Amino acid sequence: MTHQPGMSALTAADPEIAGLVEREARRQHDKIRLIASENYVSEAVLEATGTVLTNKYSEGYPGRRYYEGQQVIDQVERLAVQRAKALFGAEHANVQPYSGSPANLAAYLAFAKPGDTVLGMALPDGGHLTHGWSVSATGKWFDPVRYGVRKETGRVDLDQVRDLARRHRPTLIFAGGTAIPRTIDFPAFAEIAREVGAVLVADIAHIAGLVAGGAHPSPVGYAPVITTTTHKTLRGPRGAMILADAEHGKAIDKAVFPGLQGGPHNHTTAAIAVALGEAATPEFRDYAHAVVDNARALAEALLERGFDLVSGGTDNHLLLVDLTGKGIGGKPAAQALDRAGVELNYNTVPFDPRKPFDPSGIRLGTSSITTRGLRPEHQPRLAEWIDRAVTAAASGDEQALERIAAEVHELLAAYPMPGYRA
């Protein structure tokens, strides 16, 4: 088996790097990949990221560049913008942010001043670093106020969001995060933001593909600013976008360039355009719904095996599992699962008494396994492997982990991976 597209020139020029790429491709092929922020891109997206577009520097925007020779690049970026607007029904799109964190920083630069109050979800409850957490620049340069989830339900406490917004009158309110297994109520957030005069920023980095495929409600029409990465459920390259209404679009563009970045990564822009084109197809719509079906089936199977799921289940691609009742921390469990051929990440859970680098939970996502073709009927077996691996980790049974890894490898042999072929 070998990486696709082929790497003959790379192999000849730098066999050491080529060998590492091949090893990584094989690793991705052989593992049940349940990291919620990862996916497999198509070979078309892979090809786009490796084109001569990487040679071109293009500060500015189409028709308004600071370098000559933009005749083709302008067409590439315009196509990506048009596809983003059409796919999400947005009035404005910026496809230049290098990743999700700069995309969120652009919202701060566009609509807030240092020291302004921002309201975001607390990191341990499922929020993101750039929503005002203390170790982030956003928590150091702004005055962060944090909301969380209800202890009894594990769901966002909208009463708390409203109370905090009325009390602190934030300039920005962030809705969304990195470990939210339930539907985000964008209309409710919009009502709160309107009441206090805040700009609502919907961070849909995790659920953008589900939104595009109609498997999660859209924030368009509720949040005037929407940030997202382009990988995860959207199944594109490592990049980002910002969607906005017409009123807020110009400020966003100025914040991205020249406010935060220089020239965009044109090869990534092309790959984003390819992924957006794929996401506009009926097949992708089926995929988005299949991601949710798989997540719900996996959640049900884990619950039957006695696992404690934050909020009791999932509405999207993501599951957050509290392992306290299993007598093991999230970190040793995640490391043992990796040895067993099941790749996921350890994660804090709401009201976690343990430290962030050694938390109580694990986070799972079904985007990658759905791309490989796994279906709801496979999820009980995945839950069995997870259960057996967690039990083996608690008892130090390495042979049991090796047996699981062999079973995983046997199953995955029947499900091809984009980018790696026999």
TrEMBL record:
Predominant cellular place of this UniProt entry's protein: cytoplasm
Catalytic activity field: (6R)-5,10-methylene-5,6,7,8-tetrahydrofolate + glycine + H2O = (6S)-5,6,7,8-tetrahydrofolate + L-serine
Pathway(s): One-carbon metabolism; tetrahydrofolate interconversion; Amino-acid biosynthesis; glycine biosynthesis; glycine from L-serine: step 1/1
Keyword Amino-acid biosynthesis among record annotations: yes
Keyword tags: Amino-acid biosynthesis, Antibiotic biosynthesis, Cytoplasm, Methyltransferase, One-carbon metabolism, Pyridoxal phosphate, Transferase
Pfam families linked to this entry: SHMT
GO annotation terms (biological process): antibiotic biosynthetic process; glycine biosynthetic process from serine; methylation; tetrahydrofolate interconversion
Cofactor needs: pyridoxal 5'-phosphate
EC numbers for this chain: 2.1.2.1
Keyword Transferase: yes
InterPro entries on file: PyrdxlP-dep_Trfase (IPR015424), PyrdxlP-dep_Trfase_major (IPR015421), PyrdxlP-dep_Trfase_small (IPR015422), Ser_HO-MeTrfase (IPR001085), Ser_HO-MeTrfase-like (IPR049943), SHMT-like_dom (IPR039429)
Residues annotated as site: Plays an important role in substrate specificity: 231
Binding site for (6S)-5,6,7,8-tetrahydrofolate: 123, 127-129
Positions where N6-(pyridoxal phosphate)lysine occurs in the chain: 232
Gene Ontology cellular component list: cytosol
Compartmental location: Cytoplasm
GO molecular function, one term: methyltransferase activity
Span of domain Serine hydroxymethyltransferase-like: 11-386
Assigned protein family: Belongs to the SHMT family.
Subunit structure as annotated in this protein's UniProt entry: Homodimer.
Function recorded in the entry: Catalyzes the reversible interconversion of serine and glycine with tetrahydrofolate (THF) serving as the one-carbon carrier. This reaction serves as the major source of one-carbon groups required for the biosynthesis of purines, thymidylate, methionine, and other important biomolecules. Also exhibits THF-independent aldolase activity toward beta-hydroxyamino acids, producing glycine and aldehydes, via a retro-aldol mechanism. Thus, is able to catalyze the cleavage of L-allo-threonine.
Protein's name in the database: Serine hydroxymethyltransferase
Gene behind this protein: glyA
